[in-house]
Amino acid sequence: TAPALQMSSGLSAELEGRYQGAVKKLKQQLETEQRLSAKLRAVADRQFGEPSELEAFFVDCVDRVKSSVEERRHRAARATQKSSKKTPPATQQTLPNVSLDDFTVSDRRQVIELLLSSEEVLQFLYDKLFPSG
């Protein structure tokens, strides 16, 4: 039974060595993946941390249309006030801020028209639709 015990203990040692090697290799792979993950997170944070030039231009277009909606509201309020002559100008109410829900179909179309009036936006869209290479 001594040779059988020696053989089984040799087999256990061999298996243990293989397991330790596999664990070491998996730990190295884990460290590599963690470093890669940290790099990707850093890139994503930089990319999404501040708006791109295209996003900033889009927000500017929306703000310009919001301004025109506000002006339209003020004109309508003044016209209503003139026709009713009930509320004196000093006590007139302030109109609520314009949200995207207040945009009409025409206002939304105007945002798109402003956006597409930019040569840079058109070039960006062209490059994305028809990549070279």
Give an overview of the whole structure.
With about 130 residues, the protein is mainly α. The protein is built from four helices and no strands. Helix 2 runs antiparallel to helix 3. The radius of gyration is 34 Å and the shape is elongated. The N and C termini lie far apart (about 70 Å). The mean pLDDT is about 85.
What keywords describe this structure?
0% strand, mainly alpha, 4 helices, 133 residues, elongated
Please estimate the helix content.
over 70%
**Individual helix count:** 4
Shape: elongated
Alpha carbon gyration radius: 34 Å
Helix-strand string: HHHH
DSSP, total strands: 0
Structural class: mainly alpha
Alpha-carbon distance between the termini?
71 Å
Strand content: under 5%
Nutshell version of this structure?
It contains 4 helices and no strands. It is mainly alpha-helical and 133 residues long.
